[in-house]
Amino acid sequence: MNASASSLLPEPANVVTKSGPLFLSALFHWGCFGVLCTQFFIYMGGFARDPLRNKLFVYVVFTLEVVQTIILTKSFFDVFGYGFGDPGAYDRVGAIWFSVSFLSGIVACLTQMFYAVRLYKLSGSYRVPIVVSVLSVTQASGAIFNAIVLKNAGLFSRLPPKSFKASNLIWAGGSALCDVVIAYFMTRYLWKRRNEAMEPTQIIVNRIVRLVLETGTITAMFAIILLVLTMLPDHISYYQVPASILAKLYSNSMLALLNSRSMLNAPADMECMPPVPTRTPLTVLRFVETFQDPGIVAVKSHNGYANSVDERSESTGVD
């Protein structure tokens, strides 16, 4: 009896390397989704008067993330629930090709395009935003290519090594390069604005620069980890962990930047000096894009200097 049961359910080789990454993927994915929900509700409560285009963008990204979480959770349940005791369950691709590869590439592309628009607002030039857009579309193409490779294989053990590694090189490598470009030029342009601003605005810009560097470093780091792990031999599936949370990292970084605008309406520092006029007098009407309402408004302070919250808004390039 025991021998028969043993023959029906043979002990798979290296079961930990197959089930472990999936288990960790489920934990980290839901953890990142919880953070994303918090960020989303902060945005909904704090920026109800945001332009419609901002709201639609956030809704689309959050909806894609919810869809990814639902489908990926179903995949986890198929493995650890319905597939409990079945060694072959760990090897089935199922809907992971869509929930991880395809949706992660799309969410990353949307987020990087969001930063491309910010870069244009800060620089007034199309050159860097075009480079970011090209890299973003390239990584999304690699993610779609990766999804096709996974779907056609059906089983992780049947993945064609060359096609799978090539698709991940385009996807993860393109994502990492795009994130580095974004972090570098966002920091460069913000720092330039910082040097032209008054002290309270400088403190705010310092915070946003730190946020941009932190989020850019995290997304680039996980993209590089994904790339390195996919190059491991013997189809070891450790790469599933960074792949399952990559989209959540991008959407969280985007919402963190949007929610950072709350700093514009709060004291920049408890110990900072009172606002002082900027070095550059405002002799003409300046047109800045507001955070609270769509459209363009003209702002001029009574003493001829830009010392309003709107100037801080323009300095950060975040809307």
Automatic annotation (TrEMBL):
Q: Name residues in a coiled coil.
A: none
Question: Keywords of this protein's UniProt record, alphabetized?
Answer: Membrane, Transmembrane, Transmembrane helix
Q: Which residues form the DUF6534 domain?
A: 175-262
Pfam families documented for this protein: DUF6534
- Record-annotated membrane-spanning stretches: 20-44, 56-76, 96-116, 128-149, 169-191, 211-232
> Would I find Mitochondrion among this entry's keywords?
no
Protein known as:
DUF6534 domain-containing protein
